[in-house]
Amino acid sequence: ILQCYNHGAKKSLGHVTVVIVGGTGDLARKYLWQGFFQLYADQVGKGHTFSFYGGALSTTEKGTPLLFDILKELACPAELSVERCALVKDQFLHLSKYHQLKTTEDYENLSQQIKQQLGQEGIIEAGRLFYLSVPAFAYADIAEKINNTCRPPSEAWLRVVLEKPFGHNLYSAQALDKKLSGQLKEEEMYRIDHYLGKQVVSKILPFRKENKKLLDPIWNKHHIERIEIVLKETLDAKGRIQFYDQYGVIRDVLQNHLTEVMTLMLMNLPANLSNSEEILQNKLNFLASLQHVDNSNAVVGQYQAYNGEVQEELNKTKDYFSLTPTFAGVVIHVDNAQYEGIPIFMTSGKALDERVSYARVLFKSNVFCVQDPNNVQCKSKQIIFYLGHGTLQYPAILLSKNLFKPELVSSGDWKEVTEYKDVNVLGLPLSDYYIQSPVTPREAYCELISHVFFGRKDSFISAEGLLASWEFWTPLLEGLSRVFPRVYPGGVDNGNLLNFQLKGHQVAFSHEAVVNVINPGAEDNFQVMQGKYRSSEMVSAWAQELVERLASDLLLAAEEAIREEGQFHLALSGGSSPVALLRALALNLYTFPWRNTHIWQVDERCVPHTESGSNFRSIHDLLLQHIRIPYFNIHPMPVHLTQRLCVEEDGGPTLYEKEIKKHVNGSSFHYILLGVGQDGHTASLFQDTKLENDEENLVILTESPNKPHQRMSLTFTAINRARRVGVLIMGKSKHELVSQLSRIKGESSKYPITKVQPKSGTLIWYIDYDALLG
């Protein structure tokens, strides 16, 4: 039987009122009342008095029998004798009552009832604990009612527990936080993630602290091969579709539970494990160090019966397709010196082959076994935070014996396991591990309810931590909103269909799909096509093939330039067009001669290079940080001089022009890559850009109609001196522009791109089928 323990935190005497809003719901029935009963059993006779209210929308006549049906089923804590439990349970039932909580008047009546009880019994109020076990859309309204009608006196505390989901993305989470913070103080809000109450998760930081001397030398990129954070479920979403179809697996599990586990494993260790402020700051620092993730870093799936369940439970027509993923695999990287290059595989799904959850650190092997491969020194080196279920069936921390013997994480309530079942855990028999496990299994909600009572905030989600997590996950969620998930049959029949692999930093399924949501259609019939466009060469293909072809052409141009001149000068434009190309160059073309390549900018926004709106920041994040290129081969535009941006007197364009003339033979770049805006501008040369007096200049300051308005750009003089110019146009939104340009002969002042006419070089248009065909 699961049970709670007093953690010895400092207590103040007085009366505590507990109100579970949604007190007859599923969560309350399964976990919350049991947790509060165990809290009462632990605290009874220790100075506090209690009253418990189950609140819901139903009338008292309807709600009271529902509540007492729940309370009669409560299990006794194991440390209580049968006689003692019967007495404590009878007291608990006597102290518990149902109260309708629907209107403001209902909350006022509750507050009056609490005051009246305290007055009659002549006792001091210690605090009020509200647990909101209701849908998130009701939080703001209930918080307002609590704030306006149910606050205790100033000398007593108020604690309000909130269940996930805390928003749907960054913007909704910010909106919810704004509403709640208008009614409640941050120290009054306890955002619960029940994973933080799991015994193994709560011991990740203490385990790292206890074994710091032995872990520090190996807890880094030189020794860790990969990290896996996994939550697999056999259950489907049937019966929960109304909630689940709005959220999906990433919002339901990865953004919160698994991100918290990852953070505890990899954040800097706080000097004091009981300092919640230091823990929060270290969490925020770690989340800020995560590299951006998008569609190329993830795969998604959906179990085959899901769409039918959506149609049935949401009353959708038979031709309705839900894109909500029930499976996701994401690979995350950390941008710091300690963990750089270590892939973090994070995955979860419903309707899989087993129920299991764990976090695993797999270390590199530096041993070559000539003989006896079964020797323990030849086997995998790993640390596993095993959360439960699976082959082991109990929560534990496992450390392979070829690493070191760990210190016991908590001598009072944890034990070392010395009797081994005949099972394997992640490739090793139990006898190859040092194993630590809780003496008595305890339910997560029980632990967290105890922490709320004692005011321990280190086991809960802060507003800053919540928004930081959403800031990381929202771009991926937005990108996946239009992606068809791979359909899988469910259970053992999935076979290898959901296996995924890492190629560079890109993630893909390892095997071809057997089942598809939609037919690929005519896409598959097109390969790379060559032709003419505006009297110049044109290459056209679907987006991925087009980018691969452009990357290949760049490689050939680089090899030719280096053979002839010893170096390759490549100028890259900003905007959205080159993003896919930069990623392909960074992650796929390992043979690219970066050591002999110079990177230049075609244009730059007048913002600091460290800001997200900077073109150079984009080139850095997508390309430079992933490749080995000498730092003196990188030439950012000098838009930020003397602590100001793009001021004429600072001479930024002149400085860049001098640098070009110094390094680039005849100021003729080997390759300039351009994009085209929907208005026909290229680089940062717009329809209204005045160039009459700048015919000899290579670099100028310009004005954009869009913010930020100030820009620095190569001129058409510089562009048209290049040996090769590539113009990349992608996406259906550019189809009308492509059609317009095809009908224009020669130059048009309305479309600056038409002024790109290399004098002795080659112009090639790279246009994907979406832009070409619409």
UniProtKB/TrEMBL annotation:
Lineage: Eukaryota, Metazoa, Chordata, Craniata, Vertebrata
Identification of the protein by name: Hexose-6-phosphate dehydrogenase (glucose 1-dehydrogenase)
Pfam families named in the record: G6PD_C (PF02781), G6PD_N (PF00479), Glucosamine_iso (PF01182)
Record carries keyword NADP: yes
Pathway: Carbohydrate degradation; pentose phosphate pathway
Keyword Coiled coil: no
Location of the Glucose-6-phosphate dehydrogenase C-terminal domain: 207-495
SUPFAM superfamilies: Glyceraldehyde-3-phosphate dehydrogenase-like, C-terminal domain, NAD(P)-binding Rossmann-fold domains, NagB/RpiA/CoA transferase-like
GO molecular function: 6-phosphogluconolactonase activity; glucose-6-phosphate dehydrogenase activity; NADP binding
Cellular component, GO annotation: endoplasmic reticulum
Swiss-Prot/TrEMBL GO biological process terms: glucose metabolic process; pentose-phosphate shunt, oxidative branch
Keywords: Carbohydrate metabolism, Glucose metabolism, NADP, Oxidoreductase
Superkingdom, taxonomy of origin: Eukaryota
InterPro entries the UniProt entry points to: 6-phosphogluconolactonase_DevB (IPR005900), G6P_DH (IPR001282), G6P_DH_AS (IPR019796), G6P_DH_C (IPR022675), G6P_DH_NAD-bd (IPR022674), Glc/Gal-6P_isomerase (IPR006148), NAD(P)-bd_dom_sf (IPR036291), NagB/RpiA_transferase-like (IPR037171)
Residue span, Glucosamine/galactosamine-6-phosphate isomerase domain: 543-765
Start and end residues of each Glucose-6-phosphate dehydrogenase NAD-binding domain: 19-201
Xref: PROSITE patterns: G6P_DEHYDROGENASE (PS00069)
